[in-house]
Amino acid sequence: MSSASNDTVGIPGRSHLRIIWALLLRELSTRYGRDNIGFLWVIGEPLLFAGGVLILWGFARPPFEHGIPVLAFVVTGYMPIILVRHMITHGMFAVRVNQALLYHRQVTVLHLFTARALLEFVGVTLAFTVIAAGLVLYRQMEPPKALPLVYAGWFTLGFISLGLALIFGALSEMFQFVERFVSVITYVLVPLSGTFYMAAWLPPGFRQAALYLPFLHCVEMIRGGFFGEFTPTYFSIPYAVAWAAGLNLVGLALLRFVRDRVEIE
Q1: Which of 22, 162, 189, 261 is the most interior residue, by most CB within 10 Å?
Q2: Res 109: pLDDT
Q3: Burial class (CB in 10 A: 0-12, 13-18, 19+), 145
Q4: 122 φ, ψ (degrees, to nearest 5)
Q5: Residues of the domain holding 123
């Protein structure tokens, strides 16, 4: 495909933004349609997932876990894993379902991945904001004690999720069997990523091993920002950012192979 060979070099930065915005609007229209609530499903879908989990935990568990309101604990752990899973799974077929768009000379493989990842990030972020605001309004959790730390954890997790979306998305385009393992991997991340536990609750040996996972650092940052200094948290911002940068570099490198594969086809 000759059009794919014209990479992003030479296209002004504003043009990149216009392309991504157009792709994002197209993704909204094709995925959710324009009838009924339409694009609001980008927020409604993660809201339904998180709402169901909150209801189950609200009935099944006591109001507090280790001195932390149980609903606040669940929402600060479950929304991050929804972000990771949504960005990875929706990045899997970014090229396959939009390959015809690559006939346009300025559209690249990276644009396709970026638009899908941005859509999921914005949708889950808004859903998290709505749920957290609702819980604060009904006095089920306190407002964040350190909002910049919440932002740091959330955006770093989004950066990590983008890198994983690029890697798994590129690999699934090159090797079809990869898509069979991605759903398993995302489910395994649920117990490993700190969704339903905090690092302080683990024995020191297990805690040290768990902190090799970059996801846990992000979740601990988010919880540290919400619960404040009196709730012990363990995280390293440079470690999480280094993982995010490394994953994105690997993902970008793999995208070059995807581009070459698309050109051949």
Answers
A1: 162
A2: 85
A3: middle
A4: -65, -45
A5: 2-264
Distances (CA, A) of 189 to 108, 128, 203, 215, 251: 30, 19, 20, 9, 19
Question: What's the rounded Cα separation, in Å, for the pair 210 and 229?
Answer: 21
Tokens 């009935």 appear where? 59
What is the dihedral sign for C-alpha 122, 196, 249, 170?
A: negative
Give how many domains the chain has, as a whole number.
Answer: 1
Displacement of CA 98 from its chain's centroid (Å): 21
* Cβ-contact 41, 142 below 8 angstroms: no
Distance between CA atoms of residues 78 and 74, nearest Å:
6
The vertex-123 CA angle with 50 and 19, nearest 5°, equals 160
Question: pLDDT for 211-265, tens place per residue?
Answer: 999 999 999 999 999 998 888 999 999 999 999 999 999 999 998 877 666 654 5
**Distance of alpha carbon 101 from alpha carbon 192, whole angstroms:** 37
CA distance linking residue 216 with residue 239, whole number of Å? 11
φ, ψ at 68 (rounded to 5°): -110, 135
What is this structure's pTM? 0.86
